[in-house]
Amino acid sequence: MPVEQYKVGDHVRVKDWDEMQSEFGGDEYCIETPGYLFLHAMKHLCGADFHIQKIQRGHDATVFRSEEGVELKSDGEPGRFWLITANMIAPYESDATGEPFDDLGWESVLIP
Hints:
By secondary structure, the protein is α+β, with helices and mostly antiparallel strands. It has one domain (3-100). The protein has helices spanning 17-24, 106-109; strands at 11-14, 30-31, 38-39, 49-57, 62-66, 89-91. It has a 4-stranded antiparallel β-sheet, with no helix packed on it. β2 and β3 (38-39) form a beta hairpin. The N and C termini lie far apart (33 Å).
C-alpha cells in the first residue's frame, strides 16, 4: 500500500520478517526496506498491530507512530523508538474466522 494511502487512525500491523525479506531482500541481520533498514533487533515487532497516531514525513522516509503512545520503543530510554515506515506495515486484517489476530500486547513489545 503506498504511503499516501495511510492516514492517522488506520489500524495496521508490522509485516512478518519473511514477508519483508521476500519483498525487499536482505540477510539474517537486516531487511533492506527503502528509507530505513528493518533490523534483526526489531524482529520482535513483526506481527504487532497498532493504530497510527502520527505521520512524520521526512526526506528519507515517512515514519509512523502508534496511537497507544508506546511509539514502538527500541529500549527503555524515554523518547527512543524504532522507525517504522510504510514498507514495514500492512493494513490490519482478521483471520478467516473473523476474529482479530493475536497481537504481542504492548507490554511484550517494550524492551526493559
